[in-house]
Design a protein that fits this description.
Layout (H helix, E strand, L loop, with lengths): L8 E3 L44 H5 L2 E3 L17
Parallel strand pairs: 1-2
Length: 82
């Protein structure tokens, strides 16, 4: 079967949420903020295969979504950046 037209849905990943956190220690007068940033969302790359002559693979698998970035946490912990 030869397929030469198809619609696909592509969505990049959302970035992670940052964290609001304040450092509190017994012998430190002013702790201050120490929350970390969230990670970036994933990217999608569309690579063409020169040996493929039909779009049959895209007929049954139409949705492509990248992973989301991880959230930040306290103690200035930053999350995974893709």
């Amino acid at each position: 079967m030869f397929i030469d037209y198809t619609k696909i849905i592509i969505k990049s990943g959302n970035g992670g949420n940052g964290a609001v956190s304040f450092r509190r220690e017994k012998y430190v007068a002013a702790g201050g903020p120490d929350g970390g940033d969230g990670g970036k969302g994933g990217n999608i790359y569309f690579v063409v295969d020169p040996d493929s002559n039909t779009l049959i693979n895209f007929r049954y698998n139409k949705k492509y979504k990248a992973e989301n970035g991880q959230n930040g946490s306290g103690n200035r912990c930053y999350r995974k950046i893709w």
